[in-house]
C-alpha cells in the first residue's frame, strides 16, 4: 500500500527535522566533551610537572564523564528547565564532569588553587563540602569552571564540574551512592546512621594520614645532609 504524496512530504519533513535535532544534540554534547578534555589536559600537565620537578604526585586518579542524554533530559524535566539548548546551557552546568582524587586534603586545595589560578579559567561556582560537609557526611570540593574551547566557528566558554576529593572521601561517596541507588533514595535509618559514622571515620583517617605524611616528610628532611632546594 503506497502513501499519498502529501503524507510522504509530512513524513520526510519529520525525518529531516529529527535528523537536524540529532545533529544539533551531537554538536551540543561535543562542546562539553572538548571542555572536559581541556580540563583533563590541564590536570595531567600539573600531575606530570609535580612528578618530574617536585618528585611528588598529589593526584591518585582522575575520572571523567559526560552526562548521558537520558540523564540530561531527566534533569531538564526535574528542574522545570525550558527544553531548548540555550536554556540547558545556562542552567545545567554538570554535563561535563571531572573528578580528581588526591592523597590528602592539603593536596585537594593545592590542586584547586593551581587550576583556578590559570588565566583562561573562570570560576563560576565553588561548593566546599569539605569545610561544610552535607548532613549525610558527604565531603568533596566542587567547582564549576569555565574553560575556553576553540572551535572552527570561534571560541566558546564551556562549563565543567570539577570535584576534588581524597581517597577516603571517594571511598565513602562511592559506597553511599550505591546504597542510595539500591534503596532508591529511601535508605533505612540505621544505614543512614552507619554512613554518617563512616563519614566521621573517613574524616579522622584523612587527618591521621596527613599528620603521618607530614611527620614522615619532616623526618626525611632532617635525616638528609642538606634539604632539597626548589627552584
Ligand atoms: P553524578 O552522576 O555523580 O554526576 P545537582 O546535581 O546540581 O542537581 P546539587 O546538589 O546542586 O545537585 O549539586 P552538588 O551539590 O554540586 O552535587 C552534585 C554531584 O555531587 C552529584 O552528581 C554527585 O556526584 C556528588 N554528590 C553530591 N552530594 C552527594 C552525596 O550526598 N553522595 C554522593 N555519593 N555524591 C554526592 P549527580 O548528578 O548526583 O550524579
UniProtKB/TrEMBL annotation:
Pfam families: RelA_SpoT
CDD domains: NT_Rel-Spo_like (cd05399)
Coiled-coil portions: none
Record-linked InterPro entries: GTP_Pyrophosphokinase, NT_sf, RelA_SpoT
Residue ranges of every copy of the RelA/SpoT domain listed in the record: 64-187
Domain of life: Bacteria
PANTHER family, alphabetized: GTP PYROPHOSPHOKINASE YJBM, GTP PYROPHOSPHOKINASE YWAC
Protein's name according to its UniProt entry: GTP pyrophosphokinase family protein
Protein source organism: Microbacterium capsulatum
Amino acid at each position: 500500500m503506497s502513501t499519498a504524496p502529501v503524507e510522504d512530504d509530512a513524513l520526510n519533513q519529520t525525518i529531516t527535522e529529527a535528523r537536524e535535532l540529532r545533529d544539533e544534540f551531537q554538536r551540543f554534547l561535543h562542546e562539553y566533551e572538548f571542555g572536559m578534555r581541556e580540563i583533563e589536559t590541564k590536570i595531567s600537565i600539573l600531575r606530570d610537572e609535580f612528578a618530574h620537578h617536585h618528585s611528588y604526585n598529589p593526584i591518585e586518579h582522575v575520572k571523567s564523564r559526560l552526562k548521558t542524554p537520558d540523564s540530561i533530559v531527566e534533569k531538564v524535566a526535574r528542574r522545570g528547565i525550558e527544553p531548548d539548548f540555550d536554556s540547558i546551557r545556562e542552567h545545567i552546568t554538570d554535563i561535563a564532569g571531572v573528578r580528581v582524587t588526591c592523597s590528602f586534603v592539603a593536596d585537594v586545595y593545592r590542586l584547586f588553587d593551581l587550576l583556578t589560578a590559570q588565566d583562561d579559567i573562570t570560576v563560576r561556582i565553588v561548593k566546599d563540602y569539605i569545610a561544610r560537609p552535607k548532613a549525610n557526611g558527604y565531603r568533596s570540593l566542587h567547582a564549576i569552571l569555565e574553560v575556553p574551547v576553540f572551535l572552527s566557528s570561534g571560541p566558546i566558554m564551556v562549563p565543567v564540574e570539577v570535584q576534588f576529593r581524597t581517597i577516603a572521601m571517594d571511598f565513602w561517596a562511592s559506597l553511599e551512592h550505591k546504597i542510595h541507588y539500591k534503596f532508591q533514595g529511601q535508605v533505612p535509618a540505621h544505614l543512614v546512621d552507619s554512613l554518617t559514622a563512616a563519614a566521621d571515620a573517613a574524616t579522622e583517617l584523612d587527618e591521621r594520614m596527613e599528620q603521618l605524611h607530614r611527620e614522615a616528610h619532616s623526618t626525611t628532611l632532617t635525616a638528609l645532609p642538606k634539604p632539597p632546594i626548589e627552584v
